[in-house]
Amino acid sequence: MGCYLVGWLLVFVLGGCAVPAKPPVEPLPAVSAQELLHGLELRAGRFEALQGLGRIRVTVAGRTQSARQVLLVTRPDRLRAEVLGPLGQTVLTVAAGEGILTAFLPGEKRFLTGAATPDNLQRLIRVPLAPAELVRLMLHDVPLADASAARVEVREDRYLLVLPTAGGGLQSLLLDGRKRLRTAQFERNGVLLWRVGYDDFRPEDDLPLSMRLEWPSAETDVQLQLSEVKINTTLPAERFRLTPPAGVNVEPLP
């Protein structure tokens, strides 16, 4: 009788601790590479401008800085970021448009101006991209490689779209079941050059409110969380070029 009781208790305990099996993932329907590419092009054309608040977190070589920003973005290459201090005061304003980059640091009474190149933008906001490239990425629009040799793989609840490029390059795009772009990465000869990821999509228009940019070779990781966003509003061109205040010296960017 004791043996039967012990056996029954073991069954009860083991059965109670068993982890329920996950329900099987419903397989995604097969799609062609051209269908996915066409969907990406349609989505990319929906957003022309963006304004809102952003919380940015930048990690370079293991050192992390965080800040709040007021952001204005409009195609093709206009960008304005007002970096806010702990008390809500503006500590840095950066504006780019029509190939010109300007910046003002009121606390240091410094005004900078120069060409809107990736190097200059990296000096100011740690993002090694040209303004036109950053604007596209912020509007959920990733430049696509030649699609002539594109192929599609289905990975559980994701589509993997692979586009080989010249010189041993590879562009990989990960899309969810609703065919929204979640991750895009660029490799050359098996080495990851950079990656962008999107998350936290707004239900009303599928705008991603979270974006992450990574450059492994530069040990740079940029994470941006958007809030209070307005889409496709008219933003005057003068908002994207700063004028030096009286009495402030103008310094050229390299």
Overview of the molecule:
This protein folds into 2 domains: 33-47 and 144-227, no CATH class; 49-138, Lipoprotein localisation LolA/LolB/LppX (outer membrane lipoprotein receptor (LolB), chain A). The chain is built from 4 helices and 14 strands. Helix content is 17%, strand content 45%. With 254 residues, the protein is of the alpha+beta class. The chain has helices at residues 2-17, 33-44, 118-125, 131-138; strands at residues 49-60, 63-74, 78-84, 90-97, 100-105, 110-115, 151-155, 158-165, 169-176, 181-188, 191-201, 208-215, 220-231, 250-252.
Q: Say how many strands there are.
A: 14
**Elements, N to C (H/E):** HHEEEEEEHHEEEEEEEE
> How many strands, what sense, and barrel or not for the largest sheet?
14 strands, mixed
Q: Which of globular, elongated, flat, extended, rod-shaped describes the shape? A: elongated
Physical arrangement of strands within the biggest beta sheet = 7-8-9-10-11-12-13-1-2-3-4-5-6-14
Structural class: alpha+beta
The value of Rg in angstroms is 24 Å
The number of domains: 2
Low-confidence segments: 2-15
Question: Percent helix among the residues?
Answer: 10-25%
Give the count of helical stretches.
4
Overall pLDDT confidence: 89
- Beta percentage is 35-45%
* Span of the ends, CA to CA: 89 Å
